[in-house]
Description:
Elements: E1 5-10, H1 14-25, E2 29-35, H2 42-55, E3 63-65, H3 80-83, H4 104-114, E4 119-123, H5 128-136, H6 140-143, E5 144-150, H7 166-170, H8 172-180, E6 185-188, H9 190-193, E7 197-199, H10 200-207, H11 211-231, E8 235-237, H12 239-248, E9 261-263, E10 274-276, E11 293-296, H13 303-311
Parallel strand pairs: 1-2, 1-4, 2-3, 4-5, 5-6, 6-11
Antiparallel strand pairs: 7-8, 9-10
Pfam families: IU_nuc_hydro
InterPro entries: Inosine/uridine_hydrolase_dom, IUNH, Ribo_hydro-like
Protein name: Purine nucleosidase
Amino acid sequence: MSGAPWYLDCDTGIDDALTLGLLVAEGADLKGIGSVSGNLSAAGGARNTLDLMALMGRPDVPVAVGAHDPLDDVFHGVADFVHGANGIGGVELPHVGEPVAESAAEMLVRLAHEHPGALRVLAIGPLTNLALALRLDPDLPSLVADVVIMGGAAQVPGNVSAVAEANIWNDPIAAQAVFDAAWPVTMVGLDVTMLARFEETHRVDLASSGASGAALAAMLGVYFEYYTPVLGRPSCALHDPLAAAIALGTVVPTSAPVVPIEVDTTGGPGHGQTLVDLRSRFIGYPPQPGLRHRVVLEVPEGFGDALLEALSRLP
């Protein structure tokens, strides 16, 4: 379904940058991109997105600045220990273009009305903009084909707490609103993204593939430093790119049951946990009326190789 119109919502750090490259390389019809605070501020994420899209030959895609703060909290600051102070590993890119005047939530609503029933949404940061768009237009779910999110964890530990994944933890109230809405949601969480890896050999090969590849490889140095003690070797997890590949259909999950999903919004030790009800696994996850949440639990191996091949096609 890569020929469909797309809205991308992101907090452009390093794995978001890889995702932009994948979407461009695969020819995704990006109608607009919204930024949200997460890896860095929404304004900083928009700046990174504009500069990266220009580098990759797509300065035509409009970029909107989205929510700076989560719905019921304040932005806690840049995750510089993961993504560097500027969100892209300290790599400096020429500043090209400016964000559009509308907000990310307004952009999403507008695009949904321009492409009713066809617009696909890929959200790889906190879900604040999607929740704000739902407030702007409660009929939005009927206009959107589906939503794919990178976030959550079903059967594995979290990465910002024992149980919570960062994108959900950053705005659990918004995440619950997205799961409550009447649109199909595919959750691509840590169960699969932590197992999808970019190795040092991938990074070296990417560095010699062209200007875009060299810039992305340079960003990965900081990301690898963060992940080396987590994964035990110089490498990184491919969170956002894997979600994009699943959305595009270039990676087909081998296990992705449709089950109930809730979010812990209580503010206690479980804050931001995705509560994925897998109790029907012992009878093969039979269809249940009214369910629209798909959780990806298993994918084929080898995504790092496929991502390298795609990114090597960038200008």
